[in-house]
Design goal:
The structure is a single chain. The protein is an alpha/beta fold. 35% of the residues lie in helices and 14% in strands. The protein contains seven helices and seven strands; from the N terminus they run ααββαβαβαβαββα. A seven-stranded mixed β-sheet has the order 2-1-5-4-3-6-7. The chain is globular. 33% of the residues are buried.
Length: 230
């Protein structure tokens, strides 16, 4: 082997050593490097996600929201104990679970002498999800003229709660009808969404068996069935 060839090999070996050293240096930085002084890489915070839509599950397990999660959601209180309850009408005595604190109460205590709209929905119902923002916007326009209540009509309170969080529905009174009693009391067909319009005296004005796709649709229905305008 000639002298020039030997020096060429030596230079090649040295170059390989430099490359290996650089790769080793880059591989040792950041999370998982084994260096106790390296800053860990923070995992991104996941946004709330809604459960999948589709047909209602045949055997939906009954679930209740964890108290710590419930407390951090900031949903509005579903009743004011200082205001007398509505005691007449077919739905006044129906028991529901308040999503804000997990307590049980009646729709009459929630209504408390005010015209009321109760929207029956479920996490798996895609038309319900489209309708919820329209109801939220209409309630903001109507203010305290009408009590607007979202009633999750499914055994899984947890999935309803998660869906509201994912959709950003945070300003409406929300309850769980885990035994799906309200549609039965009303004799309503087995479809969702359903919207109940209750007069201030507790009598039922109308049960709407179709979705409302816009804020104006909701306002028009409230004006027609309850005589309340924005």
């Amino acid at each position: 082997m000639s002298s020039s060839t030997r020096w060429s090999l030596v230079a090649l070996v040295a170059l390989i050593g430099v490359v290996v050293a650089l790769l080793s240096t880059f591989g040792d930085t950041g999370a998982g490097s084994g260096d106790p002084t390296a800053a860990p890489t923070a995992a991104p915070t996941a946004a709330p996600t809604a459960p999948a839509v589709g047909a209602p599950p045949a055997d939906e397990p009954r679930t209740v929201v964890d108290p710590a999660v419930r407390a951090g959601a900031g949903l509005p209180a579903c009743r004011d104990s200082a205001v007398p309850a509505t005691t007449s009408g077919p739905v006044a005595g129906l028991m529901v679970r308040c999503m804000d604190d997990g307590s049980t109460t009646t729709l009459g205590k929630i209504q408390a002498g005010t015209p009321m709209v109760v929207n029956m929905w479920a996490y798996w119902c895609e038309p319900c999800r489209r309708e919820l923002p329209a109801i939220r916007d209409a309630q903001a326009t109507l203010g305290d003229k009408v009590k607007v209540v979202l009633s999750h009509t499914d055994p899984s309170e947890t999935k309803g709660f998660d869906t509201l969080a994912a959709l950003g529905i945070e300003d409406l009174i929300s309850v769980s009808d885990q035994d799906e009693e309200l549609p039965t009391v009303l004799g309503a067909p087995p479809v969702l969404p359903l919207t109940l319009f209750v007069r201030a005296d507790g009598t039922v004005a109308h049960v709407l068996v179709q979705p409302m796709d816009s804020e104006q649709d909701v306002l028009d229905a409230v004006a027609e069935h309850l005589g309340v305008t924005a």
